[in-house]
Amino acid sequence: MRDWISYWDSDHPIYVNARHFDVHYANIASDIVRLVPSKAARVLDYGCGEALHADKIAAHCATLYLCEAAPTVRTRLQERFGKIANIAVVTPEEVAAMEPESLDLIVANSLLQYLKRNELLALLKVWRRLLAPGGALVLADIIDPKQSALADALSLLNFARKNGFLTAAFIGLVKTTLSDYRKLRAQLGLTTYAEAEMLKLLADAGYDAARLRPNLGHNQGRMAFRAQKNAALAG
């Protein structure tokens, strides 16, 4: 595999069993629901992955856009949610073509580590254009350079213990170590950001931003940020 999109578009061992797969996305959906400002909100989940429980988010907003770059995953999303009137499955290119100020909430969870910095900077411009006045951008599950793989593993094991798949999690960690994920991570790396670095990056891109707690998902060793357009900056 040559890139992260190809990896996520393939069969992979990131979720150790069906229980892990389900509770992971259930937790993310619940976390996003808490961020939705109103039933009239137009929400974009950018880099949504399988989004198993997106219907729960859609029940709390006017429109939910699920954006996923991996074609096979996108097909599954369409099969899963195609009959729900206020869910639209879209490509990154379709998001870039949306009307200005057409979104009230944009969430990018567990995405930034797979993007190069220049890719993130380009997306920040797109997202800023799409945010309606008063709208918010939430960037979550961001890895601090000081966050170790061991800390991530311990967080997963604690999550597994609480949700009844601890043995599978131990086995899954071994499989991941031997998988294409580990090889691709060694080849491409993961992009990390210190808190001050992320705040400055967002400010330079025309946002007023602050650390958001808790992080979305189970790993509270990672970071989340909430940002809004800086009204003093035009465009």
Description of the molecule:
- With 235 residues, this protein is an alpha/beta fold.
- 44% of the residues lie in helices and 20% in strands.
- It has 10 helices and 7 strands.
- The protein has a 7-stranded mixed beta sheet with strand order 3-2-1-4-5-7-6.
- Strand 2, helix 4 and strand 3 form a beta-alpha-beta unit.
- The relative contact order is 0.16.
- The model has no long low-confidence stretch (mean pLDDT 92).
Question: What are the defining features of this structure?
Answer:
Rossmann fold; globular; 235 residues; alpha/beta
**What is the strand content?**
15-25%
Low-confidence regions: none
CATH topology: Rossmann fold
Q: What's the story with the biggest beta sheet? A: 7 strands, mixed
- What's the CATH architecture name? 3-Layer(aba) Sandwich
Mean pLDDT: 92
N-to-C CA distance: 38 Å
Assign the structural class, choosing from mainly alpha, mainly beta, alpha/beta, alpha+beta, or little secondary structure.
Answer: alpha/beta
Q: Fraction of residues in helices?
A: 40-55%
| Strand order of the biggest β-sheet | 3-2-1-4-5-7-6
CATH class: Alpha Beta
How many structural domains in the coordinates? 1
State the CATH superfamily name.
Vaccinia Virus protein VP39
Order of helices and strands: HHEHEHEHEHEHHHHEE
Radius of gyration: 17 Å
The count of helical stretches stands at 10
Q: What is the general shape?
A: globular
Count the strands?
A: 7
